[in-house]
From TrEMBL:
Keywords: Hydrolase. It comes from the Bacteria. It comes from Marinomonas transparens. One of its GO terms (molecular function) is hydrolase activity. The keyword Hydrolase applies. It holds the Pfam family Isochorismatase. Gene3D superfamilies: Isochorismatase-like. This is Cysteine hydrolase. Residues 6-177 form the Isochorismatase-like domain.
Length: 185
């Protein structure tokens, strides 16, 4: 297998930055993702952009709406792979697994939103499919959410619990500096 590591950027769409999306954590996540994107591009490493296109007409991510568009800082280049999805998991109903295997890519660096939804779902699948997965804790974010018992949970609590769900079983949760070290110079 190749030593290459793909940067997988999940759902960095305009709607994620709107107030309607909710109270979030990691307000510096976009900056960290942009730094990783610049590093991967400078090193001509593989990049995959994932975009959620909802099947619900009232969603911020309904196709052809501004909320579904990529944020300006995360516009894919023509040479970069784009995966469109209508469910949280980027592997379901897409050619992502086949493309990664065709490229002989075994390592994935996952960033984006939301930690407890599309990031967690995609990372779980990637881990179950045998990929070596890394998640940058500070380059993902979540939104405040009520737990099953009805207790309000902060965005940081939701984020931290999701990372705990992933670390060690499906992925390795790492820092930004550790992420840069994954890409050989």
């Amino acid at each position: 297998m190749s030593e290459s590591c793909v940067l997988l950027i999940i759902d960095m769409q305009q709607g994620m930055s709107w107030p309607q999306a909710g109270e979030r954590n990691n307000t510096n996540a976009e900056h960290e993702i942009a730094e990783l994107l610049a590093h991967w591009r400078a090193n001509h490493a593989p990049i995959v952009h994932v975009r959620h296109l909802s099947t619900e007409p009232d969603s911020l991510f309904w196709p052809e709406q501004e909320g579904a568009l990529f944020q300006e800082a995360f516009q894919p280049l023509a040479s970069e792979k784009v995966i469109e999805k209508s469910v949280p998991d980027a592997f379901t109903y897409s050619n992502l697994e086949a493309w990664l295997r065709e490229q002989a890519i075994q390592r994935l660096l996952v960033v984006g939103v939301s930690t407890n939804n599309s990031v967690e779902s995609t990372v779980r699948s990637a881990g179950n499919l045998g990929f070596n997965v890394y998640v940058v804790a500070s380059a993902c974010f979540a939104f405040a959410k009520q737990d099953f018992g009805g207790r309000e949970r902060s965005a940081e609590e939701v984020h931290s619990m999701s990372l705990a769900n992933l670390h060690g079983e499906y992925a390795t949760v790492i820092s930004q500096d550790e992420a840069f070290a994954l890409l050989p110079e």
